[in-house]
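Researcher: Go.
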Amino acid sequence: MVIALAASGAAAYQLAVPPAQEAAHWREIAWPFPRDGWPAGRAFRCDGACAGAELYVRAKRGFCNCDRGVADDDEVDRVADIDLISLRFVAIAPGEQVGIAELRGRARRYHLGHSDGAAIGIAVSRHCDLFVAAAQGRGDAGTVQRAAINFLETQEMKAWVMAALDGR
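Model: Structure:
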């Protein structure tokens, strides 16, 4: 019986998910930024694999670049709300194309002047409407970006994004 118990305990230990590979669990928090020209959005904090990361999302209806959408990194820098987190952000890599639901645009990684963490700016558009997300967290920017995009791709968030862009 002792041998069986030890063997099952060893098997359970080997099958356990290491902390670095735990799933990300996002919970909603209050919108932390003062009012500006756009409606407040939604904010989330991550527990689990991206512990401590925060994600801020909102729709910006009536985006002015209706024909091209989010076409370049300069546009992501201007519209993705990274400046709400820190005015001293510096891009650390060229952006890349991303899609969320039916929207297409770009994501870009940043270093924040006030912390040792990373930030991600995401801007995607549909016709003349824009959806932006800014995420910040400690550690690797790629990990924060993957966790944020995976969360934004959940059915609940895709439905909210489309409703927000439709003015509901």
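Model: The chain has one domain: 22-165.
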